[in-house]
Amino acid sequence: MLAECGIRIGRSTVRLRRFHRWGPISVAVAMGLVLTACQDGGSTSSGSDSMMINYASGKTVLQRNFNPLIGGSGATQGTRIYMYQSLMGVNVLKGGALEPWLASGQKLSADGRTLTVDINKKATWSDGKPVTADDVAFTYQLVKKTPEINTNGISFASVSTQGEKTVVFHFDKPAFTQLSALLGQYIVPKKYWEGKNPVTFANPNPVGSGAYTLKRFDPQQVTLALRDDYWRTNSIQVKEIRLPVVNSATEISQLTRGQEDLSGGAIPNLKKEYVDKDPKKNGYFYPTYGSLIVVFNHDRSALKDVHLRKAVELSIDRNQLIELVTQLGANPISQTGLDAATQGKWLDPAYKNPVKTDLSAAKSELEKAGYTLSGGKAVKDGKQLTLTYIEVSDFADSVQRARIIASQLGKIGIKVKVQAMASGTYTEAREKGDFDLASYGLAYGSVPWQIYNPLLNSQFAGTPKGGKAQTNNYLRWRDKTTDNLLNELAGTGDEQKQIELTRKVEKIIVDQVPFVTLSNITAGCAWSARNWTGFPSENDPYAICAPWNGGPAFENVLARLKPVKP
Q1: What is the dihedral of CA 452, 458, 460, 466, to 10 degrees?
Q2: Which pTM was predicted?
Q3: Pairing label, strands 50-54, 240-244
Q4: Which of 273, 297, 302, 523 has the most other CB atoms within 10 Å of its CB?
Q5: CB within 8 A of 298, min separation 6: which ones?
Q6: Domain around 122
Q7: C-alpha closest to that of 212 among 106, 73, 69, 68
Q8: Within this chain, do residues 505 and 549 fall inside the same structural domain, yes or no?
């Protein structure tokens, strides 16, 4: 009989959900943690139809909050992909192609101002009731009037219904670039959400349209059960999923013994310490998913100076960060935040190469910003330049990265105070602008506008004095030229024009340095084939297997898995 126990540490900041998480991941999107599961006897924690997954929650204690509309630390967020669905998802492995999930299809009018979406006729909620156009329209109207839950930065004039299974969106401006952001919104049933505050409602007993329902909750583990009446596929053989708090220090041994089946966490030295020990049973798949950046708070007076921002950019040694911290498959990439391998057609060739570390040039930029180097300190008006860098204390690797960056900036005389804090405190500080530097993850969509617009458009920047950023513009970047380019981008369906405008945004990012790009982000999983087979790999890259990844990707993975016969 299984006796479960556990504590956890660390993961990489990605969504970024962290690479939203996503939506733009938050990358935020994602990535590190793991449970200590103990057994009274046997070598595996999985029954023939059960699966143990580290979904990288970033928490030591889980809260019974299954609100799929809020981001980050406010909910047991990684579980929403099992119980709730968006209309469609973005397939990063197929160049950002839209993949149906709750919807069966969509059509945008020639002028880009009307979007018609058909809901899958088979779709039902877990209470047995059909998913209707009223449910979908209700959700979008809720998001439209509640900026705090508009994490995708979506915008539309109105939404209406046509019959039971069709919704129609109307836009004041062409919406060619908005589709993946709009269609990536999670949908909730009107019956259970009408009259609720969508920001504070904890949704303790979730009713969703997804493949799983909540079977059991405790502060150390969420257990889900496959719906007998799931409408989208009958190929899923994983009847039960357990999502525990995990101790990353023991994760490799848990995977090796089959006590954990799949991990979305960041495992140090994964290939050497795990995969190479038993390549037939130990595997992984980590394709590029987005990019990892450090954001500046542009409401801080010192950071308004582009020369200071360039000094920071030039002093960071990206290769050292990757060598010491960042997970498998990471490489320094363009300052634009776009990875040449996956985003090449959008990337101006002039900006393809990553920024090289140059301490001499960094010191020169500091001098242009009015600082002098005295006794190894960057000084202005008699005071050393001091910056605060916030990070989530539970993410051990992210805290380590922040401390390495602090050390690197120290080489040009900047003092950096790393403040590691609880996830909820971190989220609040980032939203209110109580920081100088913070790491963030961007999850690629079908077009770069989908990461640039919520990140850089001033409409999402909040108010200068402590006002919360509405979506991802925690930078509080406010620039009319940037806004005009992003708004023009949103209004064209001509790909060549989109490329031209995107490259103009790239020039602003390179010249003005609103953020510093560190590397690409890889998203995926490490897996053990002791209880289940059929996981994606470099030889069979059919889906991203990150167990927190939005859209239908992970559900597609579950549908491919087969239990190992005794």
Answers
A1: 130
A2: 0.78
A3: parallel
A4: 523
A5: 304, 475, 476, 477, 478, 514
A6: 88-193
A7: 68
A8: no
